Amino acid sequence: MELENKVCLIAGATGAIGQAVAKRFLEQGAKLALVSHTSVSGRDTEFSGHESVLLATADIRNFEEVNLLIENTLTRFGTLDCVVNCTGILGPIGPTAQIDEKVWVSTIEVNLIGSFYLTRAALPPMLAKKHGKIIHFSGGGAAYGRPFYSAYSASKAALVRFCESIAEELRDSRIDVNAIAPGPVNSRMWDQVRALQSPDARTAADLKKMEETGGVPPERAADLAVFLASDRSNGLTGRLISAVWDNWNGFEQRIPELMRSEAGTLRRVPLG
Q: What pTM was computed for the model?
């Protein structure tokens, strides 16, 4: 029971990853505030009526709603130990010269601005108790250029640098801030990619691999989220961690070493 009696807010709780995280956290003894843009009560009957679960709706693009969400969580449970942000959209796919500019901007609002709002609202109670965990979900698009996915890539790269920046800012506050790269999970995002009429070569290859393998199980990301929310990861902060490729199960004894390195961070490689 690594998260016993810890109060954890999970945003994006109706998605494939959000549901997996919620289940793992509940199994580990956490008290949960499960948040979705639409009602979660009808979809997640296993959580409905559970004394350790608060079901809520909020638009993370609206700071007033996010702030009220944090207040309601504090009213219900008395504290806040962890925020896990599983929200995110893929946004427009296609040549930047042709995509809808309003949809592009909306992607930034959800993936970056909404992440800031969640973090901003959660920090005061965490700073007051001098402890906390903030976990955002990024993706492969944050670490390399992905043509035709400019809104998604830009927003997720910005999110990772946001995590790095506030992790340094909060280094003496015992609040750890990290990002998870979950890998290609079979989710609503992939349904959007499947709907493309003429995918580019890279996307077509990714789709083929997804259909062959079924994708990465969301439980892998959920297990990493449990580790990052637990006291086992205390002091590990400002990192983008892959649920698939990083040996995070062995991180507990290596945290001082990792924090002295640039591993898991976005850095410019000198041109020489």
A: 0.94
